Amino acid sequence: MTSQPFAGLPRRDFLKATASAGLAAFLPAAGRSASLAGNSRATLIADENRREGALDWQLSRVRLTKPGGIRAFGIEGYCSRQSVLAGESLDIFVSTNPASRFKIEIFRNGYYGGRGARLMTTLGPFQGSTQPEPSMGAKRLVECAWSRTATIKIPSDWPSGVYLGRLTTLPQAAHEPYWQSYVVFIVRDTRRADILLQCSDHTWQAYNKWPEETSLYTDPRGAHARGVAVSFDRPYGKFPQIYENPQSIGSGEWLCLEFPLAYWLEQHGYDVTYCSNSDCIDPEQVARCKAFLSVGHDEYWDPRQYKAVESAIAGGVNVLWLGANAVFGVSPLLPATDGRPNRVIERVGHYAGLTDEEVNRARRVLTDDFVRAGPDESRIIGARTIIPFNGGGDWICTRPDHWIFAETGMKQGEGIPGLVGWEHHGAPAELPGLEVVAEGLVWSGQTTARYTATIFPGPRQNFVFNAATIFWCQGLSSPPGHMLPWSHNSRPAGPDPRVQQISHNLLRRAIGDA
């Protein structure tokens, strides 16, 4: 772990750049805006959302294989890659049980006049078969080796976004039911957009129990054991935490925790592009946009992602952590057994923010196999995961005079009910100019902990904001296909104009429109 606040930036220069004034006095990053001026009013996303949205894109016939289970009855599948560029090919693998005909409808999620998705194409019909159950290998790794069902070359006019493939069986007789689930993939691009939304798909996969009890949390040694790996070569089961939401099966945590942000961004015409966690091991991916957004539950990071974001902050990118429990599990990307790159993540430890006392407490509660294996995450976030991990509470304003609260009307001590949970950030970092803009308590049973939302200045008139709650996006919108979570006897209340205005203030400052 380096002793410098940012890689490549001497500490003396960093202090000179930030000590003269608080972040409230910062102006938009004029130099950076000028360099991207030709793209700062890009209309790609606005034009896309003028297209007709789909009336029918959600799952309407879902059955689990058993009560309380996580697998989809009848049909399930996965894709060959987490993300893909236009012009590249994507393979889709599907299993039906019993064997049956089916189709794949591919939708792009967005605003689309409030409908939430647009139908891009329909593939099939195909004759399905029951594909083999994978066995468990070393490090509890479960990888499917299914026969390919379909290959699609991504058309050049498909914009970056999150795409859902709805799998639907086609009954032979009118009295027979059909069954559905999703596959999910990301179309990325390389353009210099205002905003980069990084999907938290490493964490989707870390918690994925498909086929049964095979997540990073089901090792008999304990929930945070090292040397456990999971593969992207398998379907996403039903999200196993804080929701009873089988209608999202196959989509990871996207519809539950991240789609409300994308829906809201596209509703308001922001110039946004999308990528997966795995794309951000490349520093150029992060540096190409004015604002980098980490969303929802972004717990598992390859160390190369950390370095890429650290470098981006040093280079002037604004970073918004619109989630919590971020950058906690050190999880390098590894190749699949057959050599295809970036298809496996392995937990090797946690990032170094926890204190010795917290580490010892974690070992007593979770597993003895709990070690630091990376740098201090609070250096790029502003705060970090603390122990206890869980809880729920209100998001309470502590700096109503700060520019992020402009036009919200919020007063000192005013809270947004239920917005903090089910995990959070606390323990603000010791960084020059860092300010705590919201703080309070979360409750988990009789246990309490303190969360802190923070903001600190970067070295080039940029900033880093930490919302300190996984539920921030729940306060932005409640689009079709989404439902509010419930955790630790509390829940967010849904869209809130104060959360929306704070987000506008942050994004407009980040992209140079403030």
Written account of the structure:
This protein has 514 residues and is of the alpha/beta class. It has a domain at 11-46 and 189-511: Rossmann fold (3-Layer(aba) Sandwich). It has helices spanning 11-18, 30-35, 44-48, 201-207, 254-267, 283-287, 303-315, 356-365, 378-381, 497-511; strands at 74-79, 83-85, 89-97, 101-109, 117-127, 150-153, 161-170, 180-188, 195-198, 228-231, 272-275, 291-297, 300-301, 318-324, 329-330, 333-334, 344-347, 349-350, 393-396, 415-420, 435-444, 447-457, 463-466. The strands form 6 sheets. It has a 7-stranded mixed sheet, with helices on both faces. The model is unreliable at 1-41 (pLDDT under 50).
Question: Could you give the distance between the termini?
Answer: 35 Å
Helix content: 10-25%
Give me the side-by-side strand order of the main sheet: 11-9-12-14-23-22-21
Percentage of residues in strands? 25-35%
SSE class = alpha/beta
Taking the sheet with the most strands, its summary is: 7 strands, mixed
Put simply, the count of helices is: 10
CATH class of the domain at 11-46 and 189-511: Alpha Beta
User: What is the fold named in CATH at topology level of the domain at 11-46 and 189-511?
Assistant: Rossmann fold
CATH homologous superfamily caption of the domain at 11-46 and 189-511:
Class I glutamine amidotransferase (GATase) domain
Measured on Cα atoms, how large is the radius of gyration?
A: 22 Å
